[in-house]
């Protein structure tokens, strides 16, 4: 895969306040998110395994009903089918990695 410049990828708003730049490989989706303070992510689940890394800011993830606050350099692993929701405490930059590929996000990228 060639070198990719994130700035060259047009962001897509996946929900209000969550703008994502997507990179897809054969087996993974990388979602680089800019999140506005106060933006919420409704509770949901999916068959994908997910790793969420806070790059900047403070974020609260409610994982299977338990709220967890985390900041820069923190990583949370979300197993398949586990309900989760999010809240940006501050403006945030996040990296979410999914396996297998998020085909719904791939369709948004085209």
Brief rundown of the structure:
With 110 residues, the protein is mainly beta. It has one helix at 103-109; strands at residues 12-15, 18-24, 29-35, 40-44, 49-56, 59-63, 66-70, 75-78, 84-88, 92-99.
Q: How would a crystallographer describe the biggest sheet? A: 6 strands, antiparallel
Q: Given the helix and strand composition, which structural class is it? A: mainly beta
Q: Helix and strand string, N-terminal first?
A: EEEEEEEEEEH
CA gyration radius, whole angstroms: 13 Å
Q: Compute the number of helices.
A: 1
Model regions low in confidence, pLDDT < 50 over at least 5 residues: none
Any idea what the shape is? globular
If strands are numbered along the chain, what order do they take across the biggest sheet?
1-2-3-10-5-8
Number of strands: 10
Fraction of helical residues: under 10%
How far is the N terminus from the C terminus?
Answer: 17 Å
| Mean of all residue-level pLDDT scores | 95
Q: Kindly estimate the percentage of residues that lie in beta strands according to DSSP.
A: over 45%
Index terms:
1 helix, six-stranded antiparallel β-sheet, 53% strand, globular
